[in-house]
Amino acid sequence: DYAMQDQTGVELARQVRRRLGRLPVLFVSGHATQALIEGAIPGARLVRKPFRIDEVLEAMAALLPVPPWVA
After folding, report:
1. Rounded to whole angstroms, how far apart are CA atoms 48 and 20?
2. Any idea what DSSP says for residue 71?
3. Are 46 and 27 within 8 A, CB to CB?
4. What distance lies between CA 7 and its chain's CA centroid?
5. Residue 47: closest CA among 64, 30, 63
6. Is the pLDDT reported for residue 71 higher than 70?
7. 51 against 71, higher pLDDT
8. Measured between alpha carbons, how far is 24 from 68 in angstroms, rounded to an integer?
9. What stretch of H or E contains 19?
10. Which of 31, 45, 48, 71 suits a disulfide with 59, CB 3.0-4.6 Å?
11. pLDDT given for residue 25 in this prediction
C-alpha cells in the first residue's frame, strides 16, 4: 500500500530494492496516482482501490516475466 502507518510504501519499496535488487513492485492504493508511483519507483505499477481481480492480475502480468515453458 502507498499509505502506511510508519512509512510510505515507496519508502519500503526503496529499502527492499536496495537489499534485493530490482524487485517488481505493485502498489494497491486509494490515495496514490500512477504518475506519483512511477516517478518514485521506476517500473512500479498501481492498482487503485476499490479494484477488480482482473486489474490485479493484469498489473502482475505486466510486472512479472513470462516463464519460458509458457511462451
Report:
1. 26
2. -
3. yes
4. 16
5. 30
6. no
7. 51
8. 18
9. helix 9-20
10. 45
11. 94
The grid coordinates of residue 33 equal: 496516482
Other CB atoms within a 10 A radius of the CB of residue 25 amount to 21
Q: Which residues pair with 48 in a beta bridge?
A: 29
The three grid cell numbers given for residue 60, joined into one nine-digit string = 502482475
Residue 10 in grid coordinates = 515507496
pLDDT over threshold 90, residue 57: yes
Condensed to tens digits (0 to 9), the pLDDT of residues 27-56 reads 999 888 888 888 889 999 999 999 999 999
Task: Say if residues 38 and 13 touch (Cβ distance below 8 Å).
Answer: no
Q: Which triple of cell numbers denotes residue 45?
A: 505499477
pTM higher than 0.70: yes
Query: In terms of residues, how long is the chain?
Result: 71
